[in-house]
Fold:
Amino acid sequence: IIIVLLTILVSTLPVFSSNNANKNLSDIIFNYSFFTPIIDNIEIKGKIFNKVTLDGLPNNCNYQEPCLPIKPLRILLPQDTDIKDICVIADEKISLGTGFQPEIGGGIIPVTYGQQGYQDNIVIKKETERVSTQIYPGDLYSKIGIYVYRGFSIVYINLHPVHYDITTGEIYYYKHMTLLIETIESAMNTA
Structure:
């Protein structure tokens, strides 16, 4: 019995070792799958638009940009690490068709009207000035930032599984996306 206990103790010593042998494991990998988006017709001020929804995900409705579903992520970074690189790998895009006109994000409505000059800050863009690129959004993800809560760093990232081609009106999505966060050693997490 003593030999068995001694063998178990010796075999578990590397687990309790304090020499940080696992520091080379610097990749954080998440896999996400998405259902097919649903496209409904809606009427806004007498014009017909397409509302794109994706099973429980919120829509990103920035001012004068197409409202498309996003996957908001909040990822806890390992202690004493910082982000070196973020990469998103997506499967082949799946087209939902062409000729769509997704709804456009509206402006912020002021809560009070008593403030001087609020009307001077309202900017109305022409239809051709909405988005600067032909594909919206231009990337598979957007990094919002790194925030610290009680000493722990949390990275905020939005995945963009649905895209819109402005020239053809095509809406397409990615069924599977893989998020890869490469980290490096850091004396302190930065925010």
